[in-house]
Amino acid sequence: MHVLVCEDDELIASGIVAGLTAQGLTVEHVGTASKAKAMLKAAVFDVMVLDLGLPDEDGLKLLQQLRQQGFELPVLVLTARDSVTDRVDGLQAGADDYLLKPFDLRELAARLHTLLRRVAGRSVNLIEHGQLSYDPSSRITLLAGQPVDLSRREQALLQALLHNRGRVLSAEQLKDSIYGFGDELESNALNVHIHHLRSKLGKGIVETVRGLGYRLGTADGAEQP
Ligand code: CA
User: Fold this and answer.
1) pLDDT tens, 202-211?
2) Which residues lie near ion ligand 1 (Cβ < 5 Å)?
3) What contacts 152, CB < 8 A, 6 or more positions away?
């Protein structure tokens, strides 16, 4: 799960980052609203933790803007403001959940997992393949019902394979679908992502078609090392 934490208090932020990382989540941290916007444009996140009192902009205002721009990721708001009006304002701005400061880090992690399950439950575009299910909108991958943490590149690779079931894709085609950002590409990058995908989802998930490329294999989840 890829989490964006927007919190300007360094002490609180480092606690959150450490706590969520220990729970197996991938966490990016920013301290201002403008950096949060830039980060959301640069990468795909599953959920956002948003402090309301930010130095450059009110958190609620940021949230409102993001919703207007069509960002659908679930947002958990952190606030020291414990008034009903603030909660109502927050929900109207598009918050999915609230946590009042100070809070327990395990509570925060539990809430984030609940949020993601809720989002996964309401999505309709679920792609199923054997023991594997992948939700393109929330980017949640489940193998035999268990969440699997895939990097953005691994998700893109998996999505390309799932969308082309039965077809052989060349290495070039796969690279194009993984790297849409004009990134510098190391020659073995694709192999590395395929290797990771196999180690996370079972060896059979990516089939090598000698001389031609790759195609979606089986997802029985039984071959994990
Ligand atoms: Ca703050």
Assistant:
1) 999 999 999 9
2) 8, 51, 53
3) 2, 43, 44
Give the distance (Å) from ligand 1 centre to CA of residue 101: 10
For ligand 1, the distance from its centroid to the CA atom of residue 94, given in whole angstroms, is: 19
Is the pLDDT assigned to residue 222 strictly greater than 70? no
What is the spatial distance between Cα 62 and Cα 54, in angstroms, rounded to a whole number?
A: 10
Task: Give the H/E segment covering residue 84.
Answer: helix 84-93
Distance 76 CA to ligand 1 centre (A): 14
Q: What is the pLDDT of residues 25-78, one digit of tens each?
A: 788 999 999 999 999 988 778 899 999 999 999 999 999 999 988 888 899 999
From the CA of 22, how far away is ligand 1's center (Å)? 23
Residue ranges of E strands in the chain: 2-6, 26-30, 47-51, 75-79, 97-100, 127-129, 132-135, 140-143, 146-148, 206-209, 213-216
C-alpha of residue 53 to centroid of ligand 1, in Å: 4
DSSP H or E run through 113:
helix 105-122
Name the pTM for this structure.
0.56
Distance 98 CA to ligand 1 centre (A): 15
3-state secondary structure of 193: helix
Measure 31 CA to ligand 1 centroid, in angstroms: 9
Yes or no: say if 127 and 143 are a contact pair by the CB < 8 Å rule. Answer: no
